[in-house]
Amino acid sequence: MENNTKTTTTTTTSAPSSSTVSRTVVLVLRVLTFVFLLIALIVIVLTKETSEDSDGESEIKFNDIHAYRYMISTIVIGFAFNLLQIALSIFTLVSGSRVLNGDGGYLFDFFGDKIMSYFLLSGSAAGFGASEDLHRFFKAAELPLNSFFGKANASASLLLFGFITTAIASIFTSFALPKKA
Amino acid sequence: MENNTKTTTTTTTSAPSSSTVSRTVVLVLRVLTFVFLLIALIVIVLTKETSEDSDGESEIKFNDIHAYRYMISTIVIGFAFNLLQIALSIFTLVSGSRVLNGDGGYLFDFFGDKIMSYFLLSGSAAGFGASEDLHRFFKAAELPLNSFFGKANASASLLLFGFITTAIASIFTSFALPKKA
Questions:
Q1: Does residue A33 have a pLDDT over 70?
Q2: How distant is the Cα of B80 from the closest Cα of chain A, in angstroms?
Q3: Residues 6+ apart with CB under 8 A from A8
Q4: How many separate domains does chain B show?
Q5: pLDDT tens, position by position, A145-154
Q6: What is the pTM of this model?
Q7: What is chain A's alpha carbon radius of gyration, rounded to the nearest angstrom?
Q8: Taking CB atoms and an 8 Å cutoff, what residues of chain B touch A170?
Q9: CB contact under 8 A, B121 and A122
């Protein structure tokens, strides 16, 4: 069925090829990643809570937790690389030719998506791992900080969505690889 | 250069093909993953420390920290799936044919390695994220638990090595994919 539609569409030159379709899907996934990472960045930067105890006021911010600092660095680096990928994708779609000729462009996309997806996942998992147990210990110490950990978890969730869209893009760029075996 | 060696080896039938070489490399990587995950499992199970304070003795074990419970579940599931992959790899190498015919085997290897590598990385990152900040808070509370967190970090490092070998295997199985673009 897939093959039949392919052969009929190739007779009309205006119909998009399967390669153009997959490039468009990858571009949409990258724009979604961009949106998720942007909101994740805004949320993590706003993650702070002021608590009052017998000693006076004390404020906790995202950079008091090392795991959240790692999380923010994965968001920022992922964001910068994502912008580069979007620029290259748009260039390829518009001009029809790749910036990197031959196998280079495919390899760049493949390794770029692969490494970025690992990177974003590690940031999200580190954030969730720290939140879960720290929140329990703070609760046990009668200092729940629900808003603080809620915001941090919201940011880690958005980072996880960014990972999922990058991982799906990575499947497409793996299938587009030139065959070596 | 690569192409030259390939054409000369194909003339002698006894020389291994590049596909057999990459299958052997993948098998070696999977055996390494097996070793790393086995030691990671032993180390995390042994992660406990007894501390004495004014209230008497108290013991902390790996299952007191939720992130370490998630870590152990990724190790166990990764370990089980790894054994299945090793069995299938050995079968393919010995018999020369695959259990799953057609594209099925390649897709199984590709998605198996991809999902497993994400899974192992998330366990390792969650473990490191929790260790880093919990250790700081315990140190600040004059209860360093250095041995406990040291063992947990050793296990998370081994899990990270298991992730790295799986990620390299994943590159090989991506290049072996049937071309779809």
A1: yes
A2: 22
A3: none
A4: 1
A5: 888 999 999 9
A6: 0.85
A7: 21
A8: 114
A9: yes
